[in-house]
Design a protein that fits this description.
The structure is a homodimer.
Chain A lengths: L6 H29 L3 H12 L4 E3 H7 L4 H13 L3 E5 L7 E5 L1 H23 L4 H19 L1
Helix pairs in contact in A: 1-5, 2-5, 3-4
The structure holds a DNA duplex.
DNA sequence: CTCAAGTATATGAGAGTTCAACTAAATTGG
DNA sequence: CCAATTTAGTTGAACTCTCATATACTTGAG
């Protein structure tokens, strides 16, 4: 038999859906408006900027940027058109390729970052007490440990 | 000056993004696989099923289902094609229209619900202690109160 | 060495989302 | 009562995402 949600669980669930969607929409709107990119592209640029040589294998980049491989492949194609990323063939493995953040891409990220971080604060950290932030972290870790396996 | 995130905040932020995305992907995959609909459509059907007469004005439906008006308008068009929803003109206000859940739509929702609820449990409630669920609820309420204004 | 199976990535089609018009009807202020 | 404004909803285009499939290379068994 289905274990339905009780009234409290339903409220929590709806609050969760509403809150997370509000945050995601706020992020996407801000980045689209001020930096002409969706949040997924921002995450890709961040991941690349932190990699040694600002360069990463596509599959590892997908993992770091929380993207499917297909989504990443399409996204990198668009980022290449903008001149923010370029691909390089992988010498060790003929199937593989690297995505490399260009200087223009790094500049675009640097320009976008302050506004994005402000939005992150406005949407989440400024709203919560430090205690709540800590609780939220534990919750998210628990979810990741379960769903990522 | 930009108030950058410190190391702890960054970890929390990344855990948050990962966890919420994992949950959303799990929901969408399950519904798409087992009920051939995205989660947004499911939310629309739920909202309609709870309305008196299983009928609601488009703008109120958009609010309840956490959808933009444009998204809702497109979605209802698709749901009409499936015979799950139909539109009715609003007699009081010539600009308005009602979306009405059909019997077929209600049946589709009833068929989808058990699998969806199982997925919600697997993804969130089974992962957390009751205490954590309660903390999460408070956090989500705080976010809603701030961002919904 | 060779062939089957596996891995890394790309691609195309179909579907959903967003944004900016656009239509049409209601409201308001003079 | 009418022009100006606001409100309800739709639409089309551009874009992103997903899923299935295709391509190209690598690996391992025999």
């Amino acid at each position: 038999m289905t274990r339905w949600l009780d009234a409290d669980e339903q409220h929590t669930w709806r609050n969760f859906l509403a809150a997370t969607q509000l945050i995601n929409e706020a992020l996407d709107r801000q980045l689209q408006r001020d930096a002409s990119m969706p949040h997924t592209y921002y995450m890709i640029l961040v991941a690349l900027s932190e990699a040694p040589g600002r360069s990463m294998r596509m599959s590892e980049l997908a993992a770091r940027a929380q993207s499917s491989q297909s989504r990443l492949s399409h996204a990198v194609a668009r980022l290449e058109e903008r001149g923010w990323v370029r691909r390089e063939r992988c010498p060790d493995d003929g199937r593989g390729s690297f995505a490399v953040l260009t200087d223009a891409g790094f500049a675009a990220l640097a320009a976008a970052a302050p506004g994005h971080v402000e939005e992150v604060r406005r949407s989440l950290f400024d709203v919560l007490t430090p205690e709540q932030v800590h609780r939220l972290d534990e919750i998210c870790v628990a979810v990741r440990n379960t769903l990522e396996g």
